[in-house]
Design goal:
D-amino Acid Aminotransferase, Chain A, domain 1; alpha+beta; 281 residues
Amino acid sequence: MTHLFISLFVYCPSMTTFPFVNLNGSLIPAKDNPLSTTFSSGLVETMLNRAGTTILLNEHLNRLLRGMKVLGIQSDQDLNSTYLHRQITELISKNGKDSGDSLKVRLMIDTEANFQIELNELPVGALRWNKQGWIIGVYDKETKKKVEESNFKLLHHPVTYVADQFRKEQEWDEALLLNSDGNIIEGSRTNIFLIRKGIISTPPLSDGCVDGIMRKQVIERFVKLHRNVVERSCSLDDLKNADEVFLTNAIIGIKWVCKFKEIDYLQIEAFKIFKNLNMDD
């Protein structure tokens, strides 16, 4: 029987600060995890758990299953939201956390269909509005391929990993990635939205960006507000000429960008959608 493996941070399989993990359905001490350093390829889902509920669990699960199909990962485990909810809830309890706490849940599956679930504390201010704004830059030493696999959160993606390390060296809040056409597609940890003269744009999945869970939520919410989002290729000139820029992912929600190089951005529409999504409730 093959097994399934679930975990939390994208490039290092085991980064939990909690004593227990869920390995193939069993709760074990993290220090005794025999697979903690053996993952080389696969998929990862990073999810938010608030007050005992894993936010948008079905959406994360659907993306995981689609990614498994694309990568040819087959598992005998019947993955469904009820099963995952139970596994996550038991792990939270085993680690002595209160059901009212907000946590980051990392779900990882490798190409051998091993799975593990890990927990981590949320970054400080993860879901709050970033009043000071984020500073961004562009990582242009490598590009991301325009292939179907790029739409999923891969366990080890060298371009994304190196870009995030470069971000830290430059002391940016986020580093933007380019595809092979030289277009902006996403951040090392986020999806990107641009606003210019009231028109909201975001790179299409065909350009190689991750099919972000929060990206989809934001697009759907704009539609409900009778504001269409144009999915189109976005150039560096589009970034420079934008009135507003904001970034999204399932853990930080929405983060407003205040600066790229010498360019300053507004925060009017980004703040409206942030409040509409009730990210800081």
